[in-house]
Structure formats: C-alpha cells, structure tokens
Amino acid sequence: MKLRKVTAASAVVFALALTATACGGDDSGDNGSSGGGGDKIKIGIKYDQPGLGLKTPQGYEGFDVDVATYVAKELGYEPDQIEWVETKSADRENALSRGDVKLIAATYSITDERKEKVDFAGPYLLAHQDLLVKSDSDISEATDLNDKKLCSVTGSTSAQNVKNDFAPKAQLSSRGGYSECLSALQNGQVDALTTDDSILAGYAAQDQYKGKFKLAGLKLSNENYGIGVKKGDTETVNKVNDALEKMVSDGSWEKAVKENFGPANYKNEPAPKIGQIVQ
Fold first, then answer.
1. What per-residue confidence (pLDDT) applies to 170?
2. pTM beyond cutoff 0.90
3. For residues 53 and 63, what is the distance between their CA atoms, to the nearest angstrom?
4. CA atoms of 43 and 16, how far apart (whole Å)
5. Euclidean distance between CA atoms 105 and 250, whole angstroms
6. pLDDT tens digit string along 112-131?
7. Helix, strand, coil: what percent of the chain each, to 5?
8. Is 251 a residue whose pLDDT tops 90?
9. CA separation, residue 164 to residues 72, 143, 155, 170, 236 (Å)
C-alpha cells in the first residue's frame, strides 16, 4: 500500500514537471509558435529602407512592417509581442534556417533559387526593378549604364541582372546596404543605384533627398515580394497566406500602400493573388 502511494505521488510530480517543461517557451528557442499566442515572435525586416522597413527613434515603420504586424496579429501576436530583427539581403536564408526569426518580410523577392532553401507565403506586393539617378542625370535607359558605375547591395541580384541583360560593360559596385549605395550616388562615386522601384521611391521621397534624385521609370523585372518561412513549415505558410488574403479583403492592404508610398507618388500594382507569381 505504501509503495502504491509513493508511486502515485511520483507520477503527479512527473506530470507537473512535463507541464512546466512544455510551458517554458523561451527555453525551447522557438521564435514564435505557428499557432500563435506565444510570448514573442521574431520577424526579420530591413532597417534602412524608407517606405518599407525603417528603424527610427520612434520605432519601426514601412509597408513591410505594416504587413508583418497584420500577419502577426492573425497568428495571435500583438504589436508589443513582435521582436524586429534586422535581416540583410545576404543573410535572409541563413536567418530562417538557423531559426533566428520565424518570418522575414524584407523586400524578399520570390525566386526559384530561393525556394530551394526557404518557403514563401504570398506574394503580397508586385514591384519592378528600376534605376535611381541624380536629378540632372542623362541616364534614361538601362543601356546607358555601359561604362558607368552601378551600385546595389551584397546579396541582391539587381545589378547583375542589368549587366547580364542590358549593359554588359556596366561596372558593378556592391555595398552592405541601400543607404550606403545612396551615399555613393550622392557623392558621385557611382552613377546609378538599382533595385526595386518601391525601395527607390522610398528613398527619393525622404525630405533630405527631395529634388536630388529621380526614378528612371523603367520596369526591368517583376519582383514578387513574399514572406519567407523556414523550409518545410507548411502550417505557417498557410496561416500567413490566410492573413494576407484577409488584409487585402478588409482594405488594410490598400491603406498601408497609400500611407507608405503615397508621398512618393508611387504607382503600385494591384494586390497580387496568393500563389500567383508574375514572371
């Protein structure tokens, strides 16, 4: 009889220990339960892209931030439960595979090569590659970049695309971030900055740069922005897609577009259909 009492008590202690272990979310290293409701969710964004992902003294702002905040809410996380993590272009796949972040919303174009390493929800925005040049520049076509210096960021394919398809004699210059490319453009170290028109419009619209730069107005490629998810996490992909569809249907997507790109007179494409990649 005494043995049975000891065994029962031990079972209770063991059960409580299992419960405590299951509830210790921080110790597991999880960056956000796919079902939501965890203490925190870590989301990768850019810190230096006005209009999309920008860190300011007041916090974080931009279209990617608004989209990610909406998605996180649908996953069960309030804004104060989001931990924003700076994710540079060259480190996005690694950040997901290492588990540093749960999601990445960082002007992350969906490509076949990237889909071999990560999964994508979306797309949630269709952008186009363009050029940003000085306001007095005579560069108006991609072919004008032959024998000129073209800047883009490490890990981005934008500059190489221009060299391969339009200007084989272009001199490529890589920087760690778009703000560094912009400084090089302003100082005359490069002749043009290339990336997505949404990113370039954000920079051109900043107060300190108004009137100094202009968009060439080219549509050199289609960039389907998706939300990166760790490879194989189909459950999270499906939940994020549901959230994106709801964001479009309830008008929140259009509101975010106007608030973030309106000042730059950016003419956005309509909201893309989930899973529909424009080539």
1. 97
2. no
3. 7
4. 32
5. 20
6. 999 999 999 999 999 999 99
7. 40, 25, 35
8. yes
9. 38, 11, 16, 9, 36
Q: How many CB atoms lie within 10 A of CB 56?
A: 10
Length of the chain (residues): 279
At residue 154 the predicted structure's pLDDT band, cuts being 50, 70 and 90, is: confident
Task: Please choose, from the candidates 124, 77, 111, 81, the residue with its C-alpha nearest in 3D space to the C-alpha of residue 260.
Answer: 124
Cα torsion angle, 202, 203, 204, 210, sign: positive
Which 3 state secondary structure label does DSSP give 164?
A: helix
User: Distance between CA 16 and CA 241 in Å, rounded?
Assistant: 37
pLDDT-derived band at 217 (thresholds 50, 70, 90) equals: confident
224: its two tokens? 């389907």
Give the three-class secondary structure for 179: helix
Contacts of 93 (CB under 8 A, 6+ apart): 114, 117, 118, 228
The token duo for 236 is 């999270």
Look-up of token digits 């290492």? 98
What is the rounded distance in angstroms from the CA atom of residue 114 to the CA atom of residue 126? 17
Contact yes or no for 79/121 (Cβ under 8 A): no
CB 79 within 8 A of CB 69: yes
202, amino acid identity: G
β pairing state of 118-134 and 213-215: antiparallel
Q: How far apart are CA 125 and CA 107, in angstroms?
A: 9
